[in-house]
Prior knowledge:
disordered N terminus; mainly beta; 12% helix; 4-stranded antiparallel β-sheet
Amino acid sequence: TQNNQMLGQKSIQSTDIRELLIQTHTVGATFIESTLGGFDAGRTGRRRIDPKEDSWSVPPSDLGVLSLSLDAEIDRLDGSVQVDGKSICTQLPCSRHIKTGSHTVSVRVPDCDPWQKKVKTKSLTNLKIQLSCRFGFVSLTTPDSAKISFKETSIEPEANGLYRLPVGTGTLKAFDDCHNGESESITISSLGKRTLTLGLGKEKTRPLTIAAKYDTGGPVNVDVQLNGTTIGSSGEELSVPLCTSAVEVVHAKARQTLSLNETENTYRVTFEEVIKLLKKEDYEAPLISAGTFMMGCWKNNTDCYSEKPRHKVTLTRDFYIMKTEVTQELYTRVMGENPSKFKDCGGQCPVEKISWYNALKMANKLSELEGLDQCYEIERVHVIAGRSNFMTDGVVYWHEDCDGWRLPTEAEWEYAARGGSYHKYAGSNSISLVGWHEGNSGNKTHKVCLKRKNGYGLCDMTGNVSEWVWDLARLDDSAHPKGESKYTSKERVDPAVSWSHPGLLEQVRKDPPRIRRVFSVTIKHMNRGGNYQEYYRWSRVAHRSSTNSEYNLGYFGFRLVRTLK
Length: 565
């Protein structure tokens, strides 16, 4: 302000300093100077005070304030400020009291041209300094782990957090040991200030291969997970982030954490063989524990047809499922005949040319031979003369509480085929490792278990022959699933699609609990897994196919399950 005396008087009277002065009979000049220095805009002068008075005056002063600041994008810079050859500041901006009058003011900053000017100072003199410097600054936001380089030379921030860079154009890069880095070409001007944000770019990767086996010596296919996401399987050459310290190896419900080091790319793991097997002379059946899984196609999978949306399914019953598709040898022993097209493939090849109905009949017969409950009642089945494997219609009852052999439901089949993982195919994302399809089969079936097993020890859930399941296929005019056959996002428990002719609907509603009925007049049922003559995408674990139930073509087979009692 212009009224320095009043400002000083008012300020002190509004504080307790007045009482302090009244009580103090000896007041030093230094105390007065420091007390009033902030109230009169630099006109400090010499102050007098009578301890018995409560006011004072400030006589005219021959001092003024010289204030220097940068005319630049930055507001602070280290350097030497001199007045008449005497240093008054080591940093800009600078503000000091000097005598009013003519002076020579000079500024020296490393890597800048010297600045000098003669000025006539008054009570308040402001100078804007324009310096020509060979550097500028960057304010940079990066992840905490980032290292910074400019023109491929590492740089560090100054105390103010800014990066000091030479004038010109160059590439500024943020990187660390684990990432490839992110860069930007920038132009630096004299004392300019750029504001940038740089990330670290893509993670660097390293190869990883895991070999897995059972403690009994046999190989086993396991999932490899990183941060809870499956990235591949054992036996595959995987790619993981360079700085990954550990991955998880998952087999069924068993899980191991595998620590990685910087030098090794191949690791070996061993799992206890705990799968319970039901063993007979010509088949084996691992026990699959009840559980919950996501059924259907992943959102980002462009191959999907009728498998969306993915939805949660819970199976409440443990069940045995045959390790392989029913072989020609097993079918012949049970049924006394071999209808297969590829008989010359041998007894260890899957039986084919099987209709949905005949699969049920074989399940009942095997149950009878082993002293188990027969799960199905098949009524009013009409057979075309001379074609024992070709049925036209019938009524089928499924007694769900039976302990005998039966077809799996569509949900049971997919749950078992996934083997505790979420691969595209049964046991791998590479179909050639696990299945026979049009691209590698030679247009014929092959002996079972020549390809890799899935996580539950099951063979050929992908390819070889298509496998019948229980569920009826209700389709609209465009052959898309409808009604119960159509997936929804709703969670389901032990789903199994059964259907009856509208004329029998009231009768079906009177069925005892745990009995499911199918009435068929050339209706369709679901089959899964794809086969030796189909396009490989149709062999995906999630893929759904439907076929007339009486068809017994050379690529239809099946495998059986038993509910654990």
